[in-house]
Design brief:
about 425 residues, alpha+beta, 17 helices, binds protoporphyrin IX containing FE
Length: about 425
C-alpha cells in the first residue's frame, strides 16, 4: 500500500499533490487489527483525501468528533450528487433504500421500520433468539467437531434469526444464504451470476410481501405492513416496502456475523478476558460493547456529501460538493476519546463507540444485534469450553477491498481436546 496521503491542513487546504491519491478502503492491519495507516492519517491532519474504486475523490475524517459530525449532520443525497453513492460495492436497491435518503423522505420510511423495531417488540424476540442459538449449538454438537465457524455459527445464527422474524420456512434458509451471499459477494462472483441471483432474491421478497399484504399475520413483515397502514402522510409504495425488507435481511446478518467471528477470534486471543467471562456471566454486556468498539466491522460508514462549505469540529474546512467518509472504526481508536485504544479491555466504562453509526441513519437493528451478540457469545463459549483455532492466527484470511472488515473463514475445533 502506498503511504503518502493527500493531507489537508486545519483550514481544509491540501498540503500535498492530488495526482496520486491512495486507494480507499484502507485494508486492515495484521490479524484484522486497525490499519496502522489510520493512526498515521490522524497524526498528519484531521482530514485526508483518498481515491474510491469508482475514481471519486473522498475526504476521509478519522477523529471521533469529526466522524460523529459527518454521520449526524451531512447528507447522503449530496454524496450521490458528488458521485459517491456507495464507494465500495454497488447499490442493488437504488431508489428504494432508506440508506440513500435524507430527512424528511428518510424519516417517512424510518418511522415505519422504527415502529416494527420498537424496544418492546425487540424484547419479545428474545426467546426466539435464544432458541435459535441453542439450535445452532446443538447442530454443532452432533456434526463434525471442527470446521469453519463463520459457516456453522457466525452466519447461521443471524440468518436463522432474520428468517424466523420474516416467517421464512427452515427449508428455505439455505436458499436465503445463497441470495444474501450474492449480494455481499461484491467482486467475489461473476457479475452476471450475481445479478441473476439478486433479481431472484428480489422476486422472492416481492412475492413474500404481496402475500403478506393480503394477510399480514404476526411476523415482522406483517408489522411493517401494519405500520405502513397506520403511518400518517404518504403511504409507502410496495417497492419501498420490498426495499425495506431486503435492507433488513442484508443489514441483519452480514454485520452481525462479522462481529461474531471477529469477537470470537479476539476472545480466543485474550484468554484472561475469556476466563473472567466464564467465571462471571454479568460481564458479557460490557464485553460485547468492547468487542463492538475493538472489532468494529465498518472500515467507513456510507459516504456523505456537503451541500455547502462546511467546517468540521476539528476546524477542517470541506468545500461544497465534497464526498466525505466518516471512518467509524478509526474513530473508535481515537486516543483523544478512548484511553489506550489499542488495548482490548472488557471493563472499559466508555461504551460510546460509533460502530452503529450516529444520527438519522443510526443502525435500526442495533437492539437486535446487541441481543444476538449477548446471547450468541455465551452460548458458544459455554457449550464448547475447548473451542480453539486450528491454524495460526497469522494465516487467517481477511476480506480486502470491502467496506466491512471480515474474516473469510475461521477454522476452529470445538470438540474436547485430547488430554
Ligand atoms: C453488529 C451488527 C451491526 C452493525 C455493526 C451495524 C452497523 C450499522 C451502521 C454503522 C449503520 C449506519 C451506516 C451509515 O450511516 O453510514 C447501520 C445502518 C443500518 N443497519 Fe445495521 N448494523 C448491525 C446489525 C444490524 C441488524 C441486525 C439489522 C436489521 C435487522 C441492521 C439493519 C440496518 C439498517 C436497515 C440500516 C440503515 C438505517 C438507515 O439508513 O436509516 N443492522 N448499521
Amino acid at each position: 500500500m502506498r503511504t503518502s496521503f493527500l493531507i489537508c491542513d486545519a483550514g481544509g487546504v491540501p498540503t500535498s499533490d492530488a495526482t496520486d491519491l491512495p486507494d480507499f478502503p484502507l485494508d486492515s492491519g495484521p490479524h484484522g487489527s486497525p490499519s496502522p495507516t489510520w493512526a498515521a492519517l490522524r497524526a498528519a491532519g484531521p482530514v485526508a483525501r483518498l481515491r474510491a474504486p469508482s475514481g471519486t475523490e473522498l475526504h476521509v475524517a478519522t477523529g471521533y468528533d469529526d466522524v460523529e459530525f459527518v454521520h449526524r449532520a451531512l447528507s447522503r443525497r449530496a454524496a450521490i450528487e458528488a458521485g459517491a453513492e456507495f464507494v465500495v460495492g454497488d447499490n442493488f436497491n437504488a431508489g428504494t433504500s432508506l440508506t440513500t435518503m435524507d430527512p424528511p423522505e428518510h424519516t417517512r420510511l424510518r418511522g415505519v421500520i422504527g415502529a416494527a423495531f420498537a424496544p418492546r417488540r425487540v424484547a419479545a424476540w428474545e426467546p426466539m433468539v435464544r432458541r435459535s442459538a441453542e439450535d445452532v449449538v446443538a447442530a454443532m454438537r452432533t456434526g463434525a467437531q471442527a470446521g469453519d465457524l463463520v459457516d456453522v455459527f457466525c452466519l447461521e445464527l443471524p440468518v436463522r434469526v432474520i428468517c424466523a422474524l420474516l416467517g421464512v420456512a427452515r427449508e428455505e434458509i439455505p436458499q436465503f444464504r445463497r441470495w444474501t451471499g450474492a449480494v455481499i459477494a461484491s467482486t467475489g462472483m461473476p457479475p452476471a451470476e450475481r445479478l441473476a441471483l439478486i433479481e431472484e432474491f428480489r422476486a422472492h421478497i416481492t412475492a413474500l410481501v404481496a402475500a403478506r399484504v393480503a394477510d399480514p399475520g404476526s411476523g415482522l413483515v406483517g408489522d411493517l405492513i401494519r405500520a405502513r397502514a397506520d403511518s400518517a402522510g404518504d403511504r409507502l409504495s410496495e417497492p419501498e416496502l420490498v426495499g425495506l425488507v431486503m435492507a433488513l435481511i442484508i443489514g441483519g446478518h452480514e454485520t452481525t456475523s462479522t462481529v461474531l467471528a471477529r469477537g470470537t477470534l479476539t476472545l480466543l486471543r485474550h484468554p484472561e478476558a475469556l476466563a473472567e467471562l466464564r467465571a462471571d456471566r454479568t460481564l458479557w454486556p460490557g464485553a460485547v460493547e468492547e468487542i463492538l468498539r475493538y472489532d468494529s466491522t465498518s472500515t467507513g460508514g456510507m459516504p456523505r456529501g456537503t451541500a455547502e462549505e462546511t467546517v468540521l469540529p476539528s476546524g477542517a474546512r470541506l468545500p461544497a460538493g465534497a464526498a466525505v467518509i466518516g471512518q467509524l472504526a478509526a474513530a473508535n481508536f481515537d486516543p483523544e476519546r478512548f484511553a489506550d485504544p489499542e488495548r482490548f479491555d472488557i471493563h472499559r466504562a466508555d461504551h460510546r463507540h460509533l460502530s452503529f453509526g450516529q444520527g438519522p441513519h443510526f443502525c435500526v437493528g442495533a437492539p437486535l444485534a446487541r441481543m444476538e451478540l449477548r446471547i450468541g457469545f455465551p452460548a458458544l463459549f459455554e457449550a464448547f469450553p475447548d473451542l480453539r483455532l486450528t491454524i495460526p492466527a497469522e494465516e487467517l484470511e481477511w476480506s480486502t477491498g470491502t467496506r466491512v472488515r471480515a474474516l473469510r473463514r475461521l477454522p476452529v475445533a470445538w470438540g474436547p481436546r485430547r488430554r
